[in-house]
Amino acid sequence: MKTMKSALAVMSLGMIASANASEAPKKEKRTSDPSRPNVLIIYADDLGYGDLQCYGAKNVETPNVNRLADNGIRFTHAYATAATSTPSRYSMLTGHYSWRRPDTDIAPGDAGMIIRPEQYTMADMFKSAGYATCAIGKWHLGLGDKTGTQDWNAQLPAALGDLGFDYSYIMAATADRVPCVFIENGHVANYDPSAPIEVSYKENFPEEPTGKDNPELLYNLKPTFGHDMSIVNGISRIGYMKGGGKALWKDENIADSITAHAIDFIKEKGNEPFFMYFATNDVHVPRFPHDRFRGKNKMGLRGDAIAQFDWCVGQLVKTLEDMKILDNTIIIISSDNGPVLNDGYDDHAQELLNGHSPTGELRGSKYSLYEGGTRVPVIVHWPQGKLNKGENKTVLSQIDLVASFAGFLGVSMPKGSAQDSFNRMDNWLGRDMTSRPWVIQQGYDHTLAIRVPDWKYVEASTFPKMKPRGAYVETGCAPVQQLFDMSKTYEETNVAQEHPEEVGKLHLLLEMIRKGNYNELPANEMP
Ligand code: NG6
Ligand code: CA
Questions:
Q1: Is residue 8 assigned to a domain?
Q2: Residue with CA nearest ligand 1 atom 13
């Protein structure tokens, strides 16, 4: 499989001559050159298809995102590759499907680096085109050489610098997993030598309180399931940690902190092309936004977290505007997977919906093979790019971002890299409305679905219909093959029996893709 890559895809749309690492363009002011736009991916966590006002959200205002949607493209059939974070992010950043590997499921906070240093990433690609690159916010793809062996008090031996990111300011995993500290360029930020950090996902440290044994210490949020281990900032988490001192984050300041670091980076690097992967903690649990977002909508903390996400977007846009580089920055807003309400903390997300539907009219949610699991908002904004603005129904997938930008920038990716990513930049810019011939969706486990413009096939699976632990939601799995008619928004009825020939065709197509035999695909199935 390593030998097959989408070379033909990356070669077709180069706007400038091939630029590999050795002939990277000199860093100079190029901010108005439309062949070298800045690229800012704003990646929300667990933000559903229906969670933004411009996608029909009720009870919460998202003026900053709405403005980008009004002046950009708002995709209605765009997909994350998986219904949970780690596989979705892995796939988007590498252009390699997470399900080709056994070790890309939801990562603990002490996971070793899942993307290996030698693996090609989106950051490598931008870097080879002469971009300054950075990752800010949620990481959730492991750090260090090997799971459970990190020394959090020293420079981590493997970190984002090995993956093409010039600068990083990240959370190792999620806000509900230890260690609850930011890591800047492979070292704990604000490190407090008086409080050495220890982390374990196996056992607690002597005398350290936990949510399970010391619920009286949970002054900010209580768990509904799981999340009853170490307590940081009055919230218990997954995993055990000790120490941290002044380096420990306060959940209510996470959005401010990542935004401030992103703004600093833009101010420093904004006059040369930059790529920023800005991944928010919002609207993942524990939802605990800053006071100034509290109580402004009827949905409680989840609504407040959406408002806080919108604020982050506004701050970044304002910075670009003040620097007069907004016009030549491609901003992509999206999410890693669909929404979930009760994901383990007592924030009343379900009870306080007040008529809001986080997935709009889609069935399913985070963790699900139904559309609600992976169909996410995608907004593309680029004033100087002459986009075909407005609502856009083209079917597209985040897996293509690496090859699309490589094609756009004329970067030829090394042989064998980003094998599942294809250059569909014209789709992303609204210039070509031909849908991707198929999109693969990964559910909570490794069961796959394949969506083509008219149909969606879900392979038969022994995985339970309802998620067995944690959030009680539909997985979309069934012991039989399922086929849905995609002319209907809600996947209500399995029509596999009525259309055996479609089932057979899509089953075969999925198997070919699973084998990675792209060169054997019929021409009309080639993305
Ligand atoms: C689950 C957690 C959930 C969330 C999820 C990852 C429990 C019971 N549930 O295991 O709260 O953290 O993992 O979400 O612990 S994701 O968006 O990062 O994939
Ligand atoms: Ca997520």
A1: no
A2: 106
Domain-embedded: residue 207: no
pLDDT per residue, tens digit, the chain (527 aa), is 333 333 333 333 333 333 343 444 444 455 678 899 999 999 999 999 999 999 999 999 999 999 999 999 999 999 999 999 999 999 999 999 999 999 999 999 999 999 999 999 999 999 999 999 999 999 999 999 999 999 999 999 989 999 999 999 999 999 999 999 999 999 999 999 999 999 999 999 999 999 999 999 999 999 999 999 999 999 999 999 999 999 999 999 999 999 999 999 999 999 999 999 999 999 999 999 999 999 999 999 999 999 999 999 999 999 999 999 999 999 999 999 999 999 999 999 999 999 999 999 999 999 999 999 999 999 999 999 999 999 999 999 999 999 999 999 999 999 999 999 999 999 999 999 999 999 999 999 999 999 999 999 999 999 999 999 999 999 999 999 999 999 999 999 999 999 999 999 999 999 999 999 899 999 999 99
Domain count, the chain: 2
Atom of ligand 1 nearest to the CA of 284: 17
The full DSSP string for 429-488 is TTS--PPPS-EEEE-SSS-EEEE-SSEEEE----S-SB-SSSS--B----SS-EEEETTS
Do residues 414 and 512 share a domain? no
Residues 448 and 316 in one domain: no
Phi, psi angles (nearest 5°) of residue 391: -65, 140
Question: Whole-angstrom Cα distance, residue 254 to residue 413?
Answer: 35
Nearest CA to ligand 1 atom 11: 343
> Which atom in ligand 1 lies closest to the alpha carbon of residue 85?
19
Could you identify the atom of ligand 1 that is nearest to the CA of residue 238?
15
63-70 and 300-322 helices, crossing angle to 10°: 50
Same structural domain for residues 122 and 73?
yes
Asked if residue 331 belongs to a domain, the reply is yes
Nearest protein Cα to ligand 1, atom 5? 106
Full residue range of the structural domain in which residue 196 is found: 34-200+244-428
Identify the residues whose C-beta falls under 6 Å from ligand 1.
Answer: 45-46, 84-85, 106, 140, 174, 176, 225-227, 238, 284-285, 337, 343-344, 469-470
